[in-house]
Structures are given as C-alpha cells and as structure tokens.
Design a protein that fits this description.
Blueprint: H1 6-31, H2 48-53, H3 58-79, H4 83-106, H5 113-133, H6 141-149, H7 155-169, H8 184-205, H9 209-231, H10 239-258
Length: 259
C-alpha cells in the first residue's frame, strides 16, 4: 500500500462516493422514466441546476454528479500522476462518451451493447478511485483488472448484460413471460439471470460469504425489478435504484476482500 496525503485520500473517497451516487441516480432515472427528459444532447448545461433542485429531475442530478466526478478526476490526475490516476481519468472519459451513447440507445439510434459498456465503465471508475483512496499499488493494477474479468469472476459480465437489458427495452418495454422466451429482450434477460447464478456459484467457490449474502439480496431485488418492469415498464419505481445500490455494495465488498 502507498502512503498518500490526506488531500488525495479525501478527494479519492469523494470521487468514489460521487461515482456510486451517479450510478444510483442512473437507476432512479430508469425507475421513474426520466431517460430522455433532457433529450439526446450531452452534457446539456442550460437550467441544469434549476431542473435538479426545483424540479427534482434525476437525469439532471445524474449529469451534475457525473460532471463533478470528471472535475475531481482531473484534480487527482494533476496532484497524483500515476498509472491508477491515468486509468481513472480515462475511465471517466469513456463513461462520459458511453453515457452520451446511451441516450442514442434509448432513442433507438445505437445498439444496446453501448448501454452495457457504459455500465462497465461507470463501475470501473468507482473501483479505481476506491483503490486510489486505499493506497493500492499502481503497479498491481493490471493484474487486478485481469483477475476481476477472468473466470470464476463473472460480475463484470452480469453488469454488462444488465446494461444490455436496459438498452434493449429502452426504458419503455416490458420484459414479459420469460418461461417461454419469444423475443430478443427475453433471451437477453435470461442470459443476464444465468450469469447472475454463475456469479453466485463463483462466490461460493471462492468462499466470499459477505459478497454472497449481498448478491442473494441483489437477486431478490432483481426479481422485484423484473416484476416492476412488467407492471409498469416506463416507471418500475425505486427498486431499479436499489438494484444498482446493492450492485455497488457487492463491488465494494469484493474490492475490499481482494486486497
């Protein structure tokens, strides 16, 4: 572990928190049908604070939070220039570009895989700044990422497929009865669920009991999301935000237990 100044630790923790908050706000955006509330232009700065404060638009809050992550990321890059801070800044850029792409996914102009890649980039950003705050050795970052994406670690694939589900249904289509899948959306949801089951099994294999407990809760919340989407596909509710919140808890627990 590296010795860091209190300023870098505090900035990194703030960035980690805001990155996680941005993810949860993204879930709330989906849960209450605000996906295209600001159109497809990004970052869209006109009246952003007014929309966030006065009208409680979660999409405006999402974009403000993402902007703050970018500013903090640049600050950390300048003050603590190394492989991790470079990777974090690049991850923020990719998250922003893919965030812009997701707007076109929702508008039907780009394929749903862009939503999956956006979710991976968003979670990677959060993880990198947590690693920086914990004093993680930058020279070990490459091996850390390789371990995170190779079997039996399936969480990244679960996150990716969750994003593809969101992109495919475009925050307005129901999933329907998956017992007899008839369309692409239902098959994608099944792949997402199978990946989740494999992830549960991998946690048992690795004897990671706290992440497993969180993953089981996440599975239950995921079923509630499925139910909410089928009841009201445009506004499934707060459960989507909770789904992201427990995903974050799983990711953070895995990072802590792996170091």
């Amino acid at each position: 572990m590296r010795k860091l100044s209190h300023m870098i630790i505090e900035l990194s923790l703030a960035t980690t928190f805001l990155a996680g908050l941005t993810i949860v706000l993204g879930g709330i955006v989906e849960g209450y049908g605000y996906g295209l509330s600001l159109g497809t232009k990004w970052p869209y700065t006109r009246d952003m604070v007014h929309l966030a404060v006065r009208k409680a638009d979660p999409e405006a809050m999402h974009r403000i939070s993402a902007t703050l992550v970018g500013l903090l990321s640049l600050t950390i890059l300048i003050l603590d220039f190394n492989l991790l801070s470079i990777a974090g800044f690049i991850s923020v850029i990719f998250t922003a570009l893919l965030g812009m792409a997701t707007l076109y996914v929702l508008a039907g102009k780009l394929p749903s895989i862009f939503q999956g890649f956006h979710d991976i980039a968003a979670y990677t950003t959060m993880v990198i700044y947590l690693l920086i705050a914990m004093g993680f050795d930058p020279s070990r970052f490459t091996s850390f990422i390789i371990d995170a994406i190779t079997p039996p670690h399936f969480l990244y694939f679960v996150i990716f497929m969750g994003g593809v589900v969101t992109g495919t249904r475009k925050m307005r289509f129901s999933i329907g009865d998956v017992r007899k899948p008839k369309n692409r959306l239902q098959w994608i949801w099944i792949v997402h669920s199978i990946a989740g089951v494999i992830f549960f099994l991998s946690l048992i294999l690795l004897q990671l009991w706290i992440p497993l407990a969180l993953a089981l809760i996440e599975g239950i919340v995921g079923l509630l999301v499925f139910r909410g989407i089928n009841r009201n596909p445009e506004k499934p509710g707060i459960v989507v935000g909770l789904h992201q919140l427990f995903s974050i808890a799983i990711v953070l627990s895995l990072v802590i237990f792996s170091i």
